Amino acid sequence: MRTHYCGELGSGQIGQEVVLCGWVQRRRDHGGVIFIDLRDRVGLVQIVFDPDRPEPFARAEQVRSEYVLRVKGLVRQRPDGTINPELATGEIEVLGHALEILNTAETPPIHLDSHAADASEELRLRYRYLDLRRPEMQTRLHTRSRITRILRRFLDEHGFLDIETPILTKSTPEGARDYLVPSRTHQGSFFALPQSPQLFKQLLMMAGFDRYYQIARCFRDEDLRADRQPEFTQLDIEVSFMDEEGVMGLMESMIRTLFREVLEIALPDPFPRLSYSEAMQRFGSDRPDLRVPLELVDIADLVKAVDFQVFASPANDPEGRVAALRLPRGGELSRKEIDQYTQFVGIYGAKGLAYIKVNDWAKGREGLQSPILKFLTDDAIQGIMTRTGAQDGDLIFFGADKARVVNESLGALRVKLGHDLGLRQGDWQPLWVVDFPMFEYDAEHRRWVALHHPFTSPKETHLGLLETDPGACLSRAYDLVLNGTEIGGGSIRIHRPEVQRQVFRLLNISDEQAEERFGFLLRALRYGCPPHGGIAFGLDRLVMLMTGAHSIREVMAFPKTQTAACPLTEAPSPVDESQLKELGLRLRARP
Amino acid sequence: MRTHYCGELGSGQIGQEVVLCGWVQRRRDHGGVIFIDLRDRVGLVQIVFDPDRPEPFARAEQVRSEYVLRVKGLVRQRPDGTINPELATGEIEVLGHALEILNTAETPPIHLDSHAADASEELRLRYRYLDLRRPEMQTRLHTRSRITRILRRFLDEHGFLDIETPILTKSTPEGARDYLVPSRTHQGSFFALPQSPQLFKQLLMMAGFDRYYQIARCFRDEDLRADRQPEFTQLDIEVSFMDEEGVMGLMESMIRTLFREVLEIALPDPFPRLSYSEAMQRFGSDRPDLRVPLELVDIADLVKAVDFQVFASPANDPEGRVAALRLPRGGELSRKEIDQYTQFVGIYGAKGLAYIKVNDWAKGREGLQSPILKFLTDDAIQGIMTRTGAQDGDLIFFGADKARVVNESLGALRVKLGHDLGLRQGDWQPLWVVDFPMFEYDAEHRRWVALHHPFTSPKETHLGLLETDPGACLSRAYDLVLNGTEIGGGSIRIHRPEVQRQVFRLLNISDEQAEERFGFLLRALRYGCPPHGGIAFGLDRLVMLMTGAHSIREVMAFPKTQTAACPLTEAPSPVDESQLKELGLRLRARP
């Protein structure tokens, strides 16, 4: 029905007759002539209808925004002075010879120009088919398609097989709540939608497929705080006979290829690496944003003996932490700004935000300004100044509390300061975090929980620690962090049944429970399971970062709202009593 | 961990030290030497352990079937007389220098040799990770991965965007039963799993994406007669501004590319086409297997007046059909075989299977043999002989009943005869079936039903028939048939709201019901919907045909059983009362 896309026309087509199909972006009548900006997937082009040709001109007069047109016309150079350098096709225009109105349109309930993003998200989702017409959304989904294409090509070239795993399956143990699907043929029983294909991909390794990948839909019935969706997409990868160096090397290479081809960005080779403990120490986070050059510095040893319990108490607590965060030229911060940051760290449980302003260190204690100065000894002050390397004009923030609170609050503060004050260095900072502990102790429930998932292998040399000191046992897990966002996580898996049982027991999963929930995995491990490992990337997040979108909802065609509903189709919706009956279910009365 | 795959070694590696990883296919001790066939994804290779090297030899003695090994060794030419031409690596063997047992294995509950397919399907599915180790299953899933790669590449090259549509969505109107997913945040409401992305892909066209594809998971909660699965995979495609010629041409080209690259088969260019009515007339089916050269011939006009109600009654019934099927050299069929075919057509509701054996037509009526001969006039016999072109030695079968019964029974019989008697011509016979009616009349419920789905467009010139004669109104649908299996179906869709409403009304969907179920589609049609159409291919079936498998379960990694259960994970399974409570549900008491 067409010879070209609107947006691909240029001076190369001057003198050609073309046929175009698209939507009316706008119509202007000017000097007895009608100008129509016609839009398609590729871009916009200006069509001119002249009263010389009365038939198409008369039709052009009927045209409104978002009408669907088919236009035949002659590409010509725009007259001098009317060239539009803002527009890719701005050098030319099309003189309309024929016009067919393929469909009409009512006035759209959301604007399709640059103000569209101002419409409420509810409205944008209800009329998603209009919202998606905006070039911004077109570009994002176009880029998403390119990204998956490049990832697939890379994996294909490296011998990975694309294998589909079930959506209707058994509850998977990822910790979040499952979506359940009632079975009609087995009334009273339920399928679960997978939170990830974790166990299936391990089974595929046991089946000898050697290298597997899948762009897999995953499901979590969580409360949608933050930027979560009930269904999301994961690039899921597993390999046999490869260690963590092999997996990380290959995945780095894949991500570098992706950034080079999509964004023309050369990511570092190799990616930097940090151990979990160093990341927590220096950045208070296991997914630090390395674009922000601020770092936490431990000062507990300097303040153990000061007469200031806010510092001394956590400094003497084995689970406590006292850390300083030096902000170069932070002395310019106003009292009000400091108050706002104090509120900010309160979100993470910090009870306050101590600070020292360094006005003129040559004057010693007198050259500093701080409400806590009076509590600190000269030695402590000297130690802090030396260790943080503070200069005149700087500000030093302090965190002192349980280590978790200090890490979370100062870790978040350093990123916030970096963003607020424009301290970011470089656009893209990838990072591997490695040497994670196998377990974290949940003091409240007095038990060990898995830091990754229960199929993650301990380091070979740490196997003995499973018995003697589980908290010291490190795993073979690795997370890929980009600009402070975890975009991928994986590990070498346990491939020996006795190690798997030992880990289950440590996690308070009895042999009986293990058999009931993971019996098929334990059985499979007995029949010749190869050493294997893998990784999963959050595709939505990766696309969000690469397209500069602010939410994963902006890179999905039909996302759900924060209450897990779809304003477009009005799903979820009530069903007939007969359907429930077939499933052997009834609704509970509302409390 | 390795330098090569086992199955890729050959004379090119002679003299090289290699490292291999894989599974023990078998171990033989022969003349004081240990031979191990080591298997990986690519193939088998023979490893030899010599008592000269006591350490690896001692380890090799412990090895059992399905143990996982890492072997370092030297590739060498096999001695004369021991070359195995059956094996791709049969020219060489690897002299083992070092052996690491990466994992042990218990004796597998199913054999992994050629007898494995004899194990019950239940057992094969329970130990699917073992079943999948068999080269046959490896090859099928490998081919499946290649097929999707080639399809994706073709579509990428033709400007199609891969866009994901929701799995948690609203009930889709494909006629089958939906799988439901209870919502926790909206208690009493349910998502449905999509039977296809039909409405979303149409919305993507309205959103201006122009060319969409997705390898999409689809769900139907049906009773699993025949070769159906609760979840299956569809290659889903939609384009804007393209007519049926455009869609069919592009899709043909894609399928030809696929067959050329995967099977080195040149499919015809273009594919043959048949109208629905001609397909029914000549083959009694809208998905005829054109490899079978037998055809139905109408003879109602010849037997309208005979004194044989079995023929005369349907011949005079406007809904009846009387047809003949000539089987060349069918005179050799025994009485018993004919009885079996009579039983066979009974499955399709035929009350009998009349026939005439042509022994010696030169003798006229005397040269024929048939229980019904006495009822037929000379003219009728002459007419039948002429019209079927029967020769001496042939057999002519007859069907006489409602057209539906004749079509289904003789249609199935012609394929069965073709297969039984080895009459098939050519390996691959693709065919487009076009010019489908929009509607079929459901006499029982006295209403029109859509032959495809309610979004299929009528032919432009038939729009008037929607009012005057719906039964005569043809649609813009097209089905792609391969060897008698429908592998794809699609249509140009309705893009005008008033036509969509008219079709809904004809299908007995009131404006109110339409608003409730498809309100979002009707609304979307009002805001500038482009002309569009598409197609969906049953990927599982296509892969099944291309790999020569006998069931779609043989080309899926983890299929369900005929009762929609997974013997491996034991899904579906009971859930905790607390989970039901969260969803606002309770189980009904068993009746």
From TrEMBL, chains A, B:
Entry binding sites for ATP: 220-222, 229, 486, 538-541
Protein name: Aspartate--tRNA(Asp/Asn) ligase
CDD domains: AspRS_core, EcAspRS_like_N
Entry similarity comment: Belongs to the class-II aminoacyl-tRNA synthetase family. Type 1 subfamily.
Enzyme Commission numbers on file: 6.1.1.23
Annotated site residue numbers, Important for tRNA non-discrimination: 30, 81
Naturally occurring in which organism (per UniProt): Caldichromatium japonicum
Region called Aspartate, residue ranges: 198-201
GO terms for biological process, alphabetical: aspartyl-tRNA aminoacylation
Chain positions recorded as L-aspartate binding sites: 174, 220, 452, 493
Enzyme class name: ligase
The reaction(s) this protein catalyses: tRNA(Asx) + L-aspartate + ATP = L-aspartyl-tRNA(Asx) + AMP + diphosphate
Pfam families linked to this entry: GAD, tRNA-synt_2, tRNA_anti-codon
